[in-house]
Amino acid sequence: MKARVKWIDGVAMLGESGSGHGVVMDGPPELGGRNLGARPMEMLLLGMGGCTQFDVLLILRKARQAVTDCVVELEAERAAEDPKVFTRIHAHFILTGKGLDPKRVETAIRLSAEKYCSASIMLGATASITHDFDIREG
């Protein structure tokens, strides 16, 4: 896997993935940014959310669960001192579908957290990561 990050101006950067996709990252105005994009640490948190959601949906699809929507709400805390690593992350899954089995949802989230989600497992080296979920019929 490859990626490239090019400095634009101030503290703004253009990230380019090996698959050819770009994303603008920037810092807050008090650090010279213009708020043009997500902060790099926000990108890490978003990456974890995307990684775990991908796993959970794939596992539930294989379990023949009829998921029609999935949202992962993430909340994180960072260390007060440098390096300001994530120290706590909570992922709240909101799954919508027809007759979703709570046990299968719980198993899918656990498997993602413990076995499949590379991002969660890496961030878990410094952060306590917790999960919960709500199921909505629809």
UniProtKB/TrEMBL annotation:
Superkingdom of origin: Bacteria
InterPro entries reported in the protein's UniProt record: KH_dom-like_a/b (IPR015946), OsmC/Ohr_fam (IPR003718), OsmC/Ohrsf (IPR036102)
A Pfam family that the UniProt record links to this protein: OsmC
Stated name of the protein: OsmC family protein
Native organism: Thiorhodococcus minor
